[in-house]
Amino acid sequence: MNGSWIYEKHTEDYGVSWKINNILHQEKSEYQEITVADSETWGRMLLLDGIVQTTENDEFMYHEMITQVALHSHPGIKNVLVIGGGDGGTLTQIVKHPAVEHIDLVEIDGQVTEICRKYFPGFQPGFSDPRTNIIIQDGIEYVQKTNKKYDLIIVDSSDPTGPAVGLFTSSFYASVFQTLNNDGMMVTQSESPIFYADIFTSIYRNICSAFGSAHIYMSTVPTYISGPWTFTIGSKKHDPRKIISDRPVPEGMKYYSPAVHQAAFVLPQYIKTQLIKAG
Question: pLDDT tens digits, residue range 97-108?
């Protein structure tokens, strides 16, 4: 497939294309089609069922923001649960914090983890860190049945299709709430506020229902639909907008900084209007 293109269709009248040098790996797992492609602009790309999940060249815009905001606003994160995130990018950000003592990653599709360990060496630090424990299991089932408690739960899921559908429901967020310690915090990717506005606002409502309130912040991820991307935090105690001043920022950040942390919570008016209408 040298010199070919991958086309990602989002709606009946909107799609994007990437020029591909070659397909490095492609297989059908129990849950989804997994593809690793080498692209002209973005380096290696991971696609699930034809939708880009991460790329070598813009992953930092997503992975730094889904992790570092919570890790710099909760004062005592020792035990972390990651649901999804089988590519290892979120893990690789978390292990940059020496105060974290243990990370459980629960991924439903073990093939995603195996393939990414092979084709995305930049994520290897997260996989190989001795604090990391990988569990191949349905994340919904895990939070319903586990007796463990966590300081932080990160839901690093794909779009709400296929095996990820249940990770966006009010019952799932209620289970997450119960799995957190008394001052625990959760963060989830919450989709495009432009193309997936209904899903975005439903996530906000469902987290508000479980936690009593929710906080939205934003990043820009070029290879995700439309660019602007949201994250939503539910917190039992700590305000995620307030940065712990004495916690050093890990070296090598390409996107996250204390200034970006605070600015990310400043929402455009159209999103504020969406949230008001969502109730």
Answer: 999 999 999 999
138-144: Cβ within 8 A, 24+ apart: 138/106, 138/108, 138/163, 139/83, 139/84, 139/106, 139/107, 139/108, 139/167, 140/166, 140/167, 140/172, 140/175, 142/83, 142/106, 143/81, 143/83, 143/172, 143/175, 143/176, 143/178, 143/179, 144/175
Give the SS3 label for residue 8: strand
Tell me which of 58, 104, 109, 156 is the catalytic residue: 156
Question: Which 3 state secondary structure label does DSSP give 265?
Answer: coil
CATH assignment of 59-246+254-278, among 1.10.645.10, 3.40.50.360, 3.40.50.150, 3.40.50.620: 3.40.50.150
Tell me the average pLDDT across 29-54: 95
The verdict on whether 156 is a catalytic residue reads yes
